[in-house]
């Protein structure tokens, strides 16, 4: 863990300024997608983005100066997030934006800066880290169940709907939608066996949602209790 001196940006006043700027920058990112914006509005959005980036840059440089060791901060989670929050702006000064349209999405990394100022998010991160092994095992089990569901529906429905359930890979979409209980309805079984199998998969899907929820909730409770001691 990086040792650092008290930073100006960690004080209550500057903290709220940064939080406000993060939310404002996300709002301007969304406003820029509105077609046919008037030139004055576009100019205002560009100018406000410039001001936000300057403040975020000052924050990054200040934290870098205060950090001990500095290289540790550069490669830390928050160091990388702070850099990603300002990097797109400076790259756009040197590269045609049209060639980096997808790169603009990095501006949304500013939302991750909020984790520095939220105790609840920090607790959630600790909880996820605590149960990471359980979540990995559950994820592997979920992938296996997803594959088995695809094989099962293929067995029941391929003969009746070969144009829909063509291969097991085509069935993966149905399995994912059913296990997550989304059920888009674009692909559905018509045979009795397929319908009964779908009901079984839905029941399993409800359990798949409940299990990680319970694991994370228990971990969150443990983290909160440890902080209150």
Automatic annotation (TrEMBL):
It is found in: Membrane. Its main location: membrane. One of its GO terms (molecular function) is voltage-gated potassium channel activity. The chain crosses the membrane at residues 12-31, 73-95, 135-156, 168-190, 196-220. One of its GO terms (cellular component) is voltage-gated potassium channel complex. Gene3D superfamilies: 1.10.287.70, Voltage-gated potassium channels. Chain C. Keywords: Ion channel, Ion transport, Membrane, Potassium, Potassium channel, Potassium transport, Transmembrane, Transmembrane helix, Transport, Voltage-gated channel. The keyword Transport applies. It is a multi-pass membrane protein. This is Voltage-gated potassium channel.
């Amino acid at each position: 863990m990086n040792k650092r001196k008290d930073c100006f940006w960690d004080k209550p006043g500057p903290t709220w300024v940064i939080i406000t700027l993060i939310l404002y920058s996300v709002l301007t990112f969304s406003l820029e997608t509105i077609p046919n914006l008037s030139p004055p509005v576009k100019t205002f959005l560009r100018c406000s983005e410039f001001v936000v980036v300057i403040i975020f840059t000052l924050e990054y440089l200040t934290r870098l100066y205060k950090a001990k060791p500095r290289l540790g901060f550069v490669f830390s989670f928050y160091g990388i997030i702070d850099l990603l929050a300002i990097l797109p702006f400076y790259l756009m000064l040197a590269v045609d934006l049209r060639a980096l349209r997808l790169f603009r999405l990095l501006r949304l990394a500013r939302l991750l800066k909020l984790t520095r100022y939220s105790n609840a998010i920090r607790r959630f991160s600790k909880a996820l880290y605590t149960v990471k092994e359980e979540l990995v095992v559950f994820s592997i089990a979920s992938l296996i169940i997803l594959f088995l569901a695809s094989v099962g529906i293929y067995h029941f429905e391929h003969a009746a709907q070969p144009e829909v359930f063509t291969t097991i890979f085509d069935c993966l979409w149905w399995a994912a939608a059913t296990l997550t209980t989304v059920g888009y309805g674009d692909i559905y079984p018509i045979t009795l066996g397929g319908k009964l199998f779908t009901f079984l998969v839905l029941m399993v899907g409800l359990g798949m949602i409940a299990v990680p929820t319970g694991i994370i909730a228990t971990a969150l409770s443990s983290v909160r209790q440890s902080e209150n001691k």
